[in-house]
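Appendix C reproduces, verbatim, an entry submitted by the partner laboratory led by Prof. M.T., so that reviewers can inspect both the input and the predicted structure.
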Amino acid sequence: MSRTIVLAILSVTLGLVALGARALGARAIENQAAKTAGAGQPEIVVASLSDLDRMAAEHQHDRPAATPAATAAPAQPVGTEEVDFGEVQGKPVRGYLARPRTPPAGAHLPGLIVIHEWWGLNDNIKAVTRRLAGEGYTALAVDLYGGKVADNPDAAKQLAGAAMSNRDGALATLRAAHDYLKQQGAPKIGVIGWCFGGGWSLQTALEVPQGIDAAVMYYGQPEKDRARLERLRAPLLGLFGADDKSIPPAAVHELEATLKQLGKTADFHIYDGAGHAFANPSGTNYRPAAAEDAWQRTVAFFKQHLKGA
């Protein structure tokens, strides 16, 4: 066989190998969020890249401006501090802790895990964390972006995608937040998140089924894995917008139907005239009437399930 023919065959072979590697790499990235949490655990699907693209489309012309959700004052004075609440993948994880300045004497407050929208743990999320604390909770806002925040949609998409790709790290951070609140003496613990954080709120309830007593998801990506949803023990409040193209009402109804079939406690509300991020602490998609109703439902829901009132 001539040297020319050998070189030609080698060139074609290397080209096919490179093409296959690129295809496998792309598929690996797309499926990374669907890896198992560990040996013998049910498959976890947080969100695919197409989900991220749809979420990004909803924020295409958005910016992280403070909304009325972030500018309203807490119902009572609260104290705050930055805390290290655990170690994940060899690094300390930091959060923003808020609680009433004068809690009831001799009582341990229920805890809340607060998960930021796709902009990150910015000042607006911190403000809403103070509002939640003002309702009588020890509220811990977690940071799934490693200290980074976004000031434009492209940066937010990159940060959200990186967090989704490191699913193990995100879930470990959320478990650490739960453990920290337990160490603070919280008798019951709830979780809440918006947008990007809404999906992780549901996942937290699925990941720590015996440790979460109430979960609120604001327009978070629905979980489609029936076996995964079977793990849910906490009552779930879901708040969605009828005009949300990233999470259309049909997807919400499908999740609701599955949860009812499984005998789970779920209360879903879809607001007419509201799109994605209609109640976000940051952004320009805010819809006052829907957001205020959703907030009142949230406060009442946590009061019922975390305070027994």
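Confidence is low (pLDDT under 50) at residues 4-47. Additional entries are available on request from the coordinating office.
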